[in-house]
Amino acid sequence: MAIIKKFKAVKIEQNHLLGIQNLSFSQISQILDQAKNFIALNRSSSKKMDILRGKTQINLFFEPSTRTQSSFELAGKRLGADVMSMNIVNSAIKKGETLIDTAMTLNAMHPDIIVIRHQDSGAPNLLAQKVNCSVINAGDGRREHPTQALLDALTIINRKGKIKGLKIAICGDILHSRVARSNIYLMNLLGAEVNIVAPKTLLPHSIERLGVKVFTNMKKGLKDCDIVMMLRLQNERMHGSFLPSAREYYEYFGLTPDKLKLAKKDALIMHPGPMNRGVEIDTNLADDINRSVIREQVELGVAVRMACLKIFCKK
Amino acid sequence: MMKEKYLVNGRIIDPKNNLDEIGGVIIDSNGLIKAVGKKVVNGNLPSKAEKIDLKKQILIPGQVDMRVFVGEPGYEYKENFRTLSDAALSGGVTSVVSMPNTSPVIDNVSIVDFLKRRGRDKSKINIFPAATLTKNTEGKQMTEFGLLKRKGIVAFTDGTKTVQDPQVMSRIMNFAGQSDSLIIQHAEDNILSNGGLINEGEISTRLGLKGIPALAEKIIVERDLSLLEEYFCRYHISQISSKKTLSVIKKAKNEKKKFTTGVSINNLSLNENDIGDFKTFLKLSPPLRTENDRQSLIEGINNDLIDVIVSDHKPEDEESKRLTFAQAATGASGIETLLPLALELFHNKSVKLNKLIALLTCNPAKILGIDKGTLSKGKEADICVFDLNKTWTVDKSKLKSKSKNTPIENRKLQGLVSKTFVKGEMLYERT
């Protein structure tokens, strides 16, 4: 058995985690297998390992983030890395320094891994060209949020035992969502059938070309689904011309017990957080321990990020 | 006084005069064209004349590029008149219309004097400055078309910007009609394109970049062509990028409306797929669109719906491009590769050679109303000589322009300019 496992392990050549689009099936399997092993560790009383002892991890968050940033910070610390989180508000970036200059400055301090979140799509790709450590994308613009999709996959596998053959509905503001894009790529690659449910004004152009079925009627989109993945509707979208009101959105695209009935009886509810209760999801559903795996997503997020740090950290 | 020059043993193409024959050109001692065509043969030349053997290469009028950005005044670190002129000469371009988006912008008579003086002193090519349509390109108050025209301004455009307000635009057209001024519109609706970075479509969805819908261009062209019915003036659409806009143009041409249209060589030679992994050198305005759009633009040339090809030469220093795609400057350097890249359309049998040459020489000259873009007897001898079949690879380090933001680095091209003459003087020769 051990021999087979060893044989199965694929060495990841690529040093950066920029997006699901850049990963192969075997790389994804490796990350998920590795993450599974960390779940138990995270639940034990002694959580510290020394896999990354002596390594330096810099968290470079250009956008405010609570769960992703703390999740990466904990993940690095539990693996024994020295973790530094840059406070952008007080940094030279606010004084007009460009991303590349910031990268070069940090690079001179010999980090082994940089975790970046940036409001501009493609920022991690630019960073990766300029530094000689590994770069992990913690969310860039509307493009990708690979670790979120990976933790979603792990959560589904943990509950359903597989992803292949499942029917997954991703609902809400697809247009502005990097979580949606990463999940579309990942769930497709892992053999799920993906439905997209959104009002037309929040659908990206040509989204069907990404291999999804598009629904503007939520009940039809949820029919017979195993997983209902809700997305956050950012407040500013409600004040723009995307939607008439939060009330209308909730009526047609909010997840309510009534709409959930169309999905399979054992369908799971997921949400990347933070939630707008009463806007995209009924507050009782969000807390329903039989259906909602939202807290489990957060828990497994740490394990997935530990796996990514371990696998991608510059050797 | 210069020596008389006999340029012999070439293929002479001058679309204005329907000329395409083996022969030569005689340039007199004043730098004017004395004779052209098959009668100029490699025979008994006067002993004091200078003979230049064209070695069977093609000789055409110096190209006229209607859309070029110079950094003067304000952005001299991106491009100045001297570097622009060197770049243009190596690409066989002898006349350019310089865009007014400088700092300060070209919107009043006093700055035109400065511009003309700098152009004359530092540049070896003909600079035809454009002035803005509106004060400070704000789209509100029209500039002094009459006075500026008297100072030598050949065209009015807000350059990278579009007049958004239909009432302002209608008054501009109305006023321009009476002063016979040429109005050039960069067609893009600001609200529809707000925040957009690349063509709206599958690629923008995949890259997570906000899209610029083709509709943003179409809607302005539709509006302006409607206004043109009421307020006729000399109206030119700077550069179009999409099939949708082309269908509007086709309809208007069928209705016998009079106006002209340009296209950037970039939109003819590249498409949105070339952006690849966030290549900021391909962040352009209008954006690169789909292959289907590119093909339809080529069709537009062949159907006489498009009159001019421009380089849309917009030099940007490295610092303005070494940023995230959202933050990076828009535009590409292109004046040096305009002809070779256009020749690609000939080599791949998309467009006939004489047609291409017309769109680069006499057509823009005619729209601008300038005495350029032809080899007619008595005209100033602005000439470009090129080797139609010479293959070479674009290498940005060899560009003469001060900025190196070429969108076609490492592209293999066929056709290379070998000599350029301005007013009879050979100012460029490839060694």
Number of strands of chain B: 18
Mean pLDDT across all residues of chain B, rounded? 96
Largest sheet of chain B: 8 strands, mixed
What structural class results from the helix and strand content of chain B? Answer: alpha/beta
CA-based shape of chain A = globular
Distance between the amino and carboxyl termini of chain B: 26 Å
Q: Determine the number of helices of chain A (DSSP H or I, runs of at least 4 residues).
A: 13
Instruction: Work out the largest interface and the residue count of each chain.
Output: A-B, 25 and 20 residues
Oligomer: heterodimer
Proportion of beta-strand residues of chain B = 15-25%
Radius of gyration of chain A: 19 Å
Helix % of chain A is: 40-55%
In N-to-C order, the SSE pattern of chain A is: HHEHEHEHEHEHEEHEHHHEHH
- Can you count the helices of chain B? 13
N-C termini distance of chain A: 27 Å
The biggest beta sheet of chain A reads:
5 strands, parallel
Average of pLDDT of chain A: 91
Low-confidence stretches of chain A: 1-12
Assign a percent range to the helix content of chain B. 25-40%
Radius of gyration of chain B over all CA atoms, rounded: 21 Å
Describe, in plain words, how this protein is organized in 3D.
The complex is a heterodimer of chains A (315) and B (431). Chain A is α/β, with parallel strands linked by helices. Helices cover 41% and strands 14% of the residues of chain A. The two termini of chain A are 27 Å apart. Mean pLDDT of chain A is 91; it is low at 1-12. Chain B is an alpha/beta fold and 431 residues long. In chain B, 29% of the residues lie in helices and 23% in strands. In chain B, the strands form 3 sheets. In chain B, strands 1, 2, 3, 4, 5, 16, 17 and 18 form an 8-stranded mixed sheet that branches. In chain B, strands 6-7-8-9-10-13-14-15 form an 8-stranded parallel sheet, sandwiched between helices. In chain B, β11, α5 (202-207) and β12 form a beta-alpha-beta unit. In chain B, α4 crosses α6 (215-230) and α6 runs parallel beside α7 (243-254). The longest helix of chain B has 16 residues, at 215-230. At the A-B interface, α5 of A face α5 of B.
